Automatic annotation (TrEMBL):
<dbReference type="InterPro" id="IPR008335">
    <property type="entry name" value="Mopterin_OxRdtase_euk"/>
</dbReference>
<protein>
    <submittedName>
        <fullName>Molybdopterin-binding protein</fullName>
    </submittedName>
</protein>
<feature type="transmembrane region" description="Helical">
    <location>
        <begin position="179"/>
        <end position="202"/>
    </location>
</feature>
<dbReference type="GO" id="GO:0016491">
    <property type="term" value="F:oxidoreductase activity"/>
</dbReference>
<keyword id="KW-1133">Transmembrane helix</keyword>
<feature type="transmembrane region" description="Helical">
    <location>
        <begin position="12"/>
        <end position="35"/>
    </location>
</feature>
<feature type="domain" description="Oxidoreductase molybdopterin-binding">
    <location>
        <begin position="236"/>
        <end position="368"/>
    </location>
</feature>
<feature type="transmembrane region" description="Helical">
    <location>
        <begin position="98"/>
        <end position="117"/>
    </location>
</feature>
<dbReference type="InterPro" id="IPR036374">
    <property type="entry name" value="OxRdtase_Mopterin-bd_sf"/>
</dbReference>
<dbReference type="Pfam" id="PF00174">
    <property type="entry name" value="Oxidored_molyb"/>
</dbReference>
<feature type="transmembrane region" description="Helical">
    <location>
        <begin position="129"/>
        <end position="147"/>
    </location>
</feature>
<dbReference type="InterPro" id="IPR000572">
    <property type="entry name" value="OxRdtase_Mopterin-bd_dom"/>
</dbReference>
<keyword id="KW-0472">Membrane</keyword>
<keyword id="KW-0812">Transmembrane</keyword>
<feature type="transmembrane region" description="Helical">
    <location>
        <begin position="55"/>
        <end position="77"/>
    </location>
</feature>
Length: 369
């Protein structure tokens, strides 16, 4: 067995991997709760880049975890099949948790990576499966850590100069060092390769950032107007934006919207798939638009799209965001009227929200009762 396949290597790489996985778990929970808020959940509207940051961290940590997991598996590989496979109950628990841990982590990292590329070569629904599996793998990680704590402790306490009981072994130390350096380098390369979809200066060297490319008006597009089947409706002279506040309704023409006081805001679009880009928006404050129709008394507001079907043709905006001064029904992007693919005639744009909730091609806005 290679001397680099030691507890010293496995523990150190394991700690880095544990940190990456914890970042993924926490930021993943946040992203899930923002999109499907439980009653107790509250998410701020400031700072505007908060969701961009948490989701960027989620994707970068996930990609960094891939080489770490590979090195970790390599370091412990011979022991995965050590006899006895089953043994006493504690041993059985340990083996079982490792099987679950390895399987679920591979699943999470692969499905997550494919999701950043919008590549779905499977039949299940990504979001719910990735969410459920996160609890499985984080739970297995906790059990694994608890079981391995003594091994980790002694591996870290011992200076990395010898294997217990044997004389210092120069080749072994050098081997272990080079594995650790290689693991670190691979993790950095992987992180940089994906980070470009959130960090502009890294964009040109980010080979793994498939969605950072340009779209119209300098912003990527996930779903075009044609794909959404709204091109005609969105350009129709009969277009109206219906606003419903309590028992009052008003149907605004595009010209009426343009004539209302316009506000500008710098708000990044941050897709759940990890890409994000800063953008300059201009439009009508949502709170002003509601006030023009009736009295908003709090609660969620629903934003509906012209898009006839699909998961993303509506979203619920919580009160914190409804009243925020940067939350807009945007008409303009980066100094031009919204491109059809970015949501013309108008779209929702609210600070620190996942892109998927920034509904394009708005048809109606309704205060929920
Ligand atoms: N009606 C509608 N709005 C939508 C979508 C959609 O499919 N339909 N996609 C959402 C997603 S997933 C993202 S990331 C953003 C992207 O906005 P952009 O295409 O203007 O960049 O729009 C959001 N708004
Ligand atoms: Mo998205």
């Amino acid at each position: 067995m290679s001397p680099a396949r030691s507890a010293a290597v496995a523990s150190r790489v394991g700690i880095a991997l544990g940190i990456a996985v914890t970042i993924c778990f926490v930021t993943g929970l946040i992203s899930h709760w923002v999109q499907h808020p439980p009653a107790w959940f509250w998410w701020p509207a400031n700072p505007v880049w908060l969701y961009r940051f948490t989701q960027g961290a989620h994707v970068v940590a996930g990609v960094v975890a891939i080489p770490l997991l590979l090195v970790k598996l390599w370091a412990v590989f011979p022991r995965l099949f050590a006899r006895p496979l089953i043994g006493n109950p504690l041993h059985l628990l340990e083996r079982g948790s490792i099987a679950v841990l390895v399987g679920s982590m591979i699943f999470q990292l692969i499905t997550g990576l494919f999701n950043t590329a919008q590549f779905y070569p499977w039949k299940f629904f990504f979001t719910t499966t990735h969410y459920a599996m996160a609890f499985v793998s984080f739970g297995a990680l906790a059990v694994h850590l608890a079981v391995k704590l003594p091994v980790v402790r002694s591996a870290l306490a011992r200076p990395d100069t010898s294997t217990a009981g044997s004389p210092p072994d120069e080749a072994g130390i050098a081997g272990r060092r080079s594995v650790l350096v290689a693991a670190g380098a691979a993790a950095v390369v992987a992180g940089v390769a994906i980070a470009g979809q959130t960090v502009p200066i890294l964009r040109r060297i980010s080979v793994l950032a498939p969605r950072s490319g340009d779209g119209p008006q300098g912003l990527p597009v996930n779903r075009t107007a044609n794909e959404a089947g709204v091109s005609e409706l969105a350009r129709s002279a009969g277009y109206r934006l219906q606003i419903i506040v309590g028992d009052r309704t008003h149907r605004f023409t595009y010209a009426e919207l343009v004539a209302l006081p316009q506000t500008e805001a710098e708000i990044p679009l941050a897709c759940v798939e990890g890409w994000s880009a800063s953008a300059h928006w201009s439009g009508i404050r949502v709170r002003d638009l509601l006030a023009a129709v009736g009295e908003y008394r709090g609660g969620d507001v629903e934003f509906r799209s012209l898009e006839p079907s699909g998961l993303y043709n509506r979203s619920l905006l919580p009160e914190t965001h409804v009243v925020d001064s940067a939350t807009l029904v945007a008409l303009r992007l980066n100094g031009e009227d919204l491109d059809l693919d970015h949501g013309y005639p108008c779209r929702l744009i609210a600070p620190t929200r996942p892109g998927v909730l920034q509904t394009k091609w708005l048809s109606a806005i309704e205060v929920q009762v």
